[in-house]
Amino acid sequence: MPNLGEESFQGFRQARCFSGRTDGIRRQGVGLTLSKRIKNSLISYSPVSERIVWARLHSQQINISVVVAYAPTDGSSEAEKDGFYTQLADTFADLPGHDVKLLLGDFNSKVTSDYSSRRGVIGSHSLHSESSDNGTRLLDFCTLNQLTIGGTLFEHRDIHKGTWRSPDGKTVNQIDHICVSTKWSHSLLDVKVCRGADIGSDHYLVRGYLRIKLKAVNKLDAAKHSFSDLEQLRNGSKITEYNIELSNRFECLPVEEDEPLEDAWTKFTETVHSVSAEVLGDRPRKRRQQHLSQVTKNLIKKRAEVKKRDPTLDLNRSEYSKLNKMVKKSCKADDNNWALGVATELETAAGNGKQREVWQKIRILSNKRSTKSSAVRDKSGKLISDPESQRERWAEHFSELLNPPQDSVDLTVLDSLPGIPCFQYLGEEDGPPTVEEIQNALKRLKNHKTPGVDGVFNEQLKYGAPGLTKTLETLFAKIWHGEAIPEDWFGWLVGQHYLSIIS
Which structural domain, as residue segments, surrounds residue 132? Predict the structure, then answer.
């Protein structure tokens, strides 16, 4: 879980919990990046402000609340510092009391190595002998919230303690910290600065090892989506082969007259998935386009080599600064070339009338990302991070929303509404849907729609109509005469697929 601090990265495929400014100014902002393995343990996260974000992770023994913060500098006003620590205290007050607390970030705080009056909060291996004003504030906060500053616990060389270097290269301070609940400080195995990581920043990467086992969160039962290559149905290259295989399968596995409805429907969906997997194969994974050119990569490699030299020498600092500017300029040029390529693809798609592709390219170019929190608050405003309690709160919310008190609804407005045609129910004399009606309904299904709980996509039904229509006719007749529908249809998405057929 690398602490992003005040840097912002783009292009990660892992989960990112980010909190930044809402006024469009590209300054401040904090975030947390979770690897593919760790993101399965994410319970919830909440963007508090441009200086604070927190996330909650599920583990085998006890859950972990991770707070990432970016404190004002020592030169900031007292009001700004007080406001930050007040907000941080409010955030900690909202965290579940029994969780392991991790506090990460750039606190612009130098803390003393004199631990005699702060036992349990700091160790004896800080880089500094005296605390700055921000350092005193951090120590007070950690004392109040029973946190231990991990970077002061482990004995390392000074070069592996300093997290920030001044522009002149002569001053090194330990101002980025990893803090952990004092009760769990023995699970923190090491905190050390990694000087080899180079991102063109005046901060060094701080690495910490925490001994704790994470556990994946139990998600709600998801739809059994097929990951077959449906594009081969959309472009027509495998439609004939797909329908021949469907016809052969359903001919060997007909719907029996005395067969239970659930068994018949399950057999139908499993057959569709099986044929799709066999004929269409797996959907190819989209490879992310590399924005950086080889020229930029070579400059980054050269900059990293220069960083390994003595930073106190003016010549080395000057060369590093020059290379850093060249890297930024080259990255900007690569971004412009990439955006120009996407814009060209957008123009081509618009000319060919491919509206879906047009909007995909627009979303890519706009680069708008959701920063909404996954946490929920109860009626008193307290955060709820437990998944089961969140579901109960959502149920309570919609129950109140959809069932308002009778005296709060003005029924007289109904008189001013235009007449709404009544739903026409079919009588017994109409009979179940015919083959022609089923085929017409399947033709009207739209592509690129999310399937229901059975995981059957519209394309699998629409382009497989010649091979599965007779089976659907038998199924619908069984449903019609038995006056019952499969459990999967209670999901509204699936019900919507067949509404036009049944009605």
Answer: 15-210
